[in-house]
Design a protein that fits this description.
Strand order of the largest sheet: 3-2-1-4-5-6-10
Largest sheet: 7 strands, parallel
Shape: globular
Order of helices and strands: EHEEHEHHEHEEHEEHEEHEHH
Radius of gyration: 19 Å
Distance between the termini: 34 Å
Low-confidence stretches: none
Mean pLDDT: 97
Helix content: 40-55%
Number of helices: 10
Number of strands: 12
């Protein structure tokens, strides 16, 4: 992919910045398009900001005129669409922003990409890669895992908005022929994640000696994917994924929330002992509205078809995460 021009939306965010860093390291030229809302931080891409292969565009994916200018000026060979509102609690208290960014923003980006693709002769090597979440599939019981062909059953304004955006991308492929790839991932963790997310909240509160809030009884289960592994998988799907295909990306690292809190607190006890276990700070709080019980991803397709598999053991990823937050 040497010298390929890659447009990354949301490239100053948590996952997007990992993609930007890896893409430049892999020989891409990257155009980072980000609105720099509360979740975007240019410090996340500081290590590549001086590279001749990096360009930053401060723009909103809902702004069609800005999008058309960016496509026209930079002429990307591919798009990786990560820009999104992603925090479930925020979607419950204020769903409007999620509908605007995740649904309308994706629509505006698809239209701009389609217009651009038409101007370059509908090149077969162009790619529009849409990055989504396992939450579109709904909630699982004690067993089973989400597969790519499972029906969608979103349970929060966030997951509903992402499900809508997934459907839009499929339609722009089926109806207009836009060459797309879709990926749905499990929960990410690692350096640069916004402090409102679960693992950063555990770390921040434990270190400061303030209560660590845990919804309900802490029995909800998530599958945790190290962000650098995810970025690698995304670039793999972009480069080798079959057009029109969806790939689920997971790690097989499942953990109940309370078990994860206990694990991180134990690691902090060793690193920064405080006289009593950090786990004593746990405070069970009223459960989230519509809280999905369990998510689990079946990654068989991407393993078999694209020869990709998560390589970071959970404990190693957590150590790297702690290194960054305690840094």
């Amino acid at each position: 992919m040497m010298n390929k021009r890659l447009l990354v939306t949301g490239g100053a965010g948590f996952i997007g910045s990992a993609v930007v860093r890896q893409a430049i390291g892999s020989g891409y030229s990257v155009i980072n398009l980000d609105a720099l809302t509360y979740a975007g931080n240019l410090n996340n891409v500081e290590e590549v900001a001086g590279s001749p292969s990096y360009i930053f565009e401060h723009a909103d994916i809902c702004d069609r005129e800005a999008l058309e200018r960016i496509f026209s000026v930079h002429k990307p060979d591919a798009v990786m669409h990560l820009a999104a509102e992603s925090h479930v609690d925020r979607s419950i208290s204020g769903p409007s922003a999620f509908m605007e960014t995740n649904v309308n923003g994706t629509y505006q980006l698809l239209e701009a990409a389609l217009g651009y693709w038409n101007t370059i002769g509908n090149r077969a090597d162009f790619r529009f890669h849409h990055i989504s979440t396992d939450e579109v599939y709904g909630s699982l019981g004690e067993s089973g895992a989400f597969k790519e062909d499972d029906p969608y059953s979103p349970n929060s304004p966030y997951s509903a908005s992402k499900a809508a955006s997934d459907h839009l991308v499929r339609v722009w492929h089926h109806t207009y022929g836009l060459p797309v790839v879709i990926t749905n991932c499990s929960n990410n963790y690692g350096p640069c994640q916004h402090p409102e997310k679960f693992i950063p909240t555990i770390i921040r509160n434990a270190v400061s000696g303030t209560p660590i809030p845990v919804y309900g009884k802490g029995l909800n289960v998530r599958e945790w994917l190290f962000v650098e592994d995810h970025a690698e998988a995304l670039l793999t799907a972009l480069e080798r994924g079959t057009i029109g295909r969806t790939y689920n990306i997971g790690s097989d690292n499942e953990s109940a929330n309370i078990e994860l809190v206990e694990k991180i607190c134990s690691m902090l006890d060793e690193r920064i002992p405080s006289g009593k276990p950090h786990f004593d700070l746990v405070e069970f709080v009223e459960d989230r509205l519509g809280h999905d019980f369990r998510y689990s991803i079946d990654s068989t397709r991407i393993k078999q078809e694209l020869n990709w598999e998560a390589s970071t053991p959970f404990e190693v990823g957590l150590e790297k995460t702690l290194d960054w937050y305690l840094g």
